Structure formats: C-alpha cells, structure tokens
Amino acid sequence: xxxxxxxxxxxxxxxxxxxxxxxxxxxxxxxxxxxxxxxxxxxxxxxxxxxxxxxxxxxxxxxxxxxxxxxxxxxxxxx
Length: 79
Hints:
It is a single chain. The chain has about 80 residues and is mainly alpha-helical. Helices cover about 55% and strands about 0% of the residues. The protein has helices at about 10-30, 50-70. Helix 1 (about 10-30) runs antiparallel to helix 2 (about 50-70). The chain starts with 11 loop residues before the first helix and ends in a 7-residue tail after the last helix. About 5% of the residues are buried. The model has no long low-confidence stretch (mean pLDDT about 85). This is DUF3098 domain-containing protein. Pfam families: DUF3098. Keywords: Membrane, Transmembrane, Transmembrane helix.
C-alpha cells in the first residue's frame, strides 16, 4: 500500500493570513452598517459621514488585498 498522506492546498501561514483578511473584510462591513433613521419620514445625514463613505470601503478593499496575498503567497519559496 502506498502512504497516502493528504496535503492541504495551502500551508498554515496562508490560512492565518486568509483568516486575517476575512476578519478585516468583516470589520469593513461592520463599519459600513448603520446610519439609518428609525422614522422613514426623517432624513438623516449620518449615512454620509467619513466612516461609511471612506473608511469602511477602504477597509474592505485592504481586506480583499490581504486575502489575495494569502492565496498567492507561496511558502515553498525561501524569500
């Protein structure tokens, strides 16, 4: 019988970086939420503040960048 040792597609470090990226994406979506008004007849400017317009989308994009890096990182290279 052959020694069928199953290998994961990525190494441990790739999965750690991937989880960090997913966490940053989740943080970005949490920052983006809220800002609505309880009364639909009342206008609220809170939806257009810095956190929802600039910070949250930038955080999500950084999270996607971290996730892509985790997928493309080759731990077999010694660099």
